[in-house]
Predict the 3D structure of the following.
Amino acid sequence: MAHLHVHDITRENERKTLIVIVLTIVTMIAEIVCGYFTHSMALLADGYHMGTHAIALGLTYAAYVLIRSYAGSERFPNGTDKIGVLAAYTSSVFLGLAGLWIIVEAVQRLLNPVPVQFDDALLATVIGLVANGVCIFIMEGKHSRHEQDRSFKEDYNFKAAYYHILADILTSVLAMAALIVGKWTGMVCFDALIGCFGGLLIAKWAIGLLKSTVRVLIDMKTE
């Protein structure tokens, strides 16, 4: 019965991931098209940023397809669960690199401030925040917090995808706060400082997920 419960959660997470991928791609296309016709670099940049999340989510979904396709195969005598863990490990690496990139970019902005198009940037941030808010709502689903936590422990693949969306929401909220303050005060440095904080927090999430997946991949016993 427990195995069936885990299987049901995995199939549900696969379905949610596919819906989120579609929503992410639609948002990405809309931002890129609008950015092109309005000549907004902020919209274009956020659109391409959504594209990187679509790739990470695609990796999550591909892992689910492989797990289902090779379930019961003699090629995987110990089961296919580690395919999802390996995908989560890879996603955590990408998540960590994203956090590092944000930190580097923020430091460069601190050292070499550039003018910020506050209105365009705020529009891109709101679009991204709404899209990712819907994605989080879909991924949370109708499960209770206890069931969600339990599914995370059993499905690192889904947890990695969840962290990617959560990281995007975090950066959107922090960016919105920084842009509003910057628009009112003219302090463009505040945007870079907030970026450093967001990058560090995302890197922390990535390291935590990386450690968890490595323990599973190398069959490390927990104390």
About this structure: The helical segments are 2-38, 41-69, 81-111, 118-140, 145-154, 156-185, 189-217. Residues 25 and 54 are 6 Å apart (CA to CA).
